[in-house]
Amino acid sequence: MSDKIKRLAKNVTELLTNTETPQETYYSLIRVMRQQKDYFEHMSPENIVKLLLYCYSYAQTNSFEESDKMLNNIGFAVLFNNSGDYHREECDNCSGNGETDCQNCDGTQNVECYECSGEGEITCDYCDGDGAVEENGETVTCPECDGKEQYCKECRGDGEVSCDDCTSGKETCEYCDGEGEVETKDYTYERYFIVTWDKYIRERCEYTEGDTDIAFSEYDFDRLRDEYIKLKIEEKWVKFDNWVDVNEIYCSYYDDSPRMHLTNDMELDTSPNDIMTPYINYTKK
User: Which of 159, 162, 166, 165 has the alpha carbon at shortest distance from 115?
Assistant: First the structure.
């Protein structure tokens, strides 16, 4: 079977746009796999890993000697690091808009005229609304209103005036201060499913698997970046226990032959992707 995959690797390598590093080779292979999904989705994850390493080795050395060494020392791990940033979610109060209908005008932009109480007319002050006054002992028509209700100048007879508490019927959401998002108590973290052939990385992952010890410093993890491939990267969020250090790398799972699958995006992943105990005290569903 390996000979068949090696023959395939020779053809596939010609289609890859970047094979400078193992990681770039994987990204290039994914693009090819997406273009020819009908073919590759039936290929087992284990054989795709072989194809990946064969392609990288053949592109670099025109042989498969290097990839054979990699495959003889292969291991898989799920790693994560806590960013220290709180996860932000869409504000339920404003549905992410940052604005809500004005409580004063209910979003209509207008309120009842305070001068005429929404009637559009006001009572004459001269005759107190009677329409008539007494002059020289006689009752005569009020000279001020001519016996009629007066037109409200404040609202121009509409009975409504513009709301002073908002703009266009909207006001800033009091829950998110207009940002459309609110901060939760969950920390964001990046989860990596990796394949590695490096002895030091494998030993560190095996030693710290599911433990509270730090597997790698961020510096070491980046320094060794050509000794592993991130097969799946995703951002998740969770409420960590207080001892989880920010920006350090932890190993939650390690195996030499894990159960893998292809995602819809033609990336490789492993089933136990949320093995976070004892790192968390609450996992967001």
Answer: 159
- The 3-state DSSP class for residue 23 equals helix
Measured over the CA atoms of residue 199, residue 200, residue 201 and residue 202, the dihedral's sign is positive
Q: CA–CA separation, 158 vs 108, rounded Å?
A: 14
Determine whether 213 is exposed, middle or buried from the number of CB atoms within 10 Å of its CB (0-12, 13-18, 19+).
Answer: exposed
Output the CA–CA distances (angstroms, integers) from residue 121 to 28, 158, 277, in the order listed: 76, 9, 72
Q: Give backbone dihedrals phi and psi of 27, rounded to 5 degrees, phi first.
A: -60, -40
How many Å from the N-terminal Cα to the C-terminal Cα in the chain? 41
Give phi and psi for 250, each to the nearest 5.
-115, 150
The amino acid occupying position 12 is V
Q: Where do the H-state alpha helices sit in the chain?
A: 2-13, 22-35, 37-40, 45-61, 65-72, 199-208, 218-223
pLDDT tens, the chain, 285 aa long: 689 999 999 999 999 999 999 999 999 999 999 999 999 999 999 999 999 999 999 999 999 999 999 999 999 999 998 887 888 889 989 989 899 888 888 888 898 888 788 888 787 777 776 767 777 777 777 877 776 777 787 888 788 888 888 878 888 888 898 899 998 888 888 999 999 999 999 999 999 998 878 999 999 999 999 999 999 999 888 777 666 788 899 998 999 999 999 999 999 999 755 555 555 543 433
In 3-state terms, the chain is what percent helix, strand and coil (to 5)? Answer: 25, 30, 40
What are the structure tokens assigned to 183, written together?
């901060």
For residue 244, give the 3-state DSSP assignment: coil
